[in-house]
Sequence to fold (165 residues):
Amino acid sequence: METLKLQRVKKPEFVSEVVVKKRPEMRIISLSGEGDPMKTFDKRLAQVFSWMESRGILSAKGSTLGIYYKNRAKVGVENVKWDACVPIEEVVDTEGEVRFQILPEKKVASVVLNGGYNLIGSALKYLEQVAEENGIQTNWPLTEIYLEEGERPVTELQYFVKEKK
Fold:
């Protein structure tokens, strides 16, 4: 893991330092959604847990996550496409809307946000600026790993790092 240095960018109080690291391979069960995730993400996540429970599938040690495929600032919140994901240990067969996926090991630029989801835009801007200042190109999708839920959530935000050829 490498902590990125910054010269021109002031770090907001509510985020950690930006790091570049290898995200390990993850096995997940997911359901897709579209539109404002604040309105339907939790419902989709509950559906994933319900589907898993009905089949005796246990979630892996780790946090739930969301994968966001489109930047809401560019496409509008109503056009955001995303997956609500639960990590699991095993390989399973799925049907219908429920999907099993293996997220490959990837190099990511990451920052941890301590605070409400209304701060995600500012946290991402900081992550993008620090990466750019360090000559690192990032790309979508955005992965949000929900480390702590509740009144003061803690969320790890990750972009893929474009590997140099």
Observations:
- Residues 71 and 80 are 7 Å apart (CA to CA).
- The chain has two domains: 1-24+107-139+152-165, 25-104.
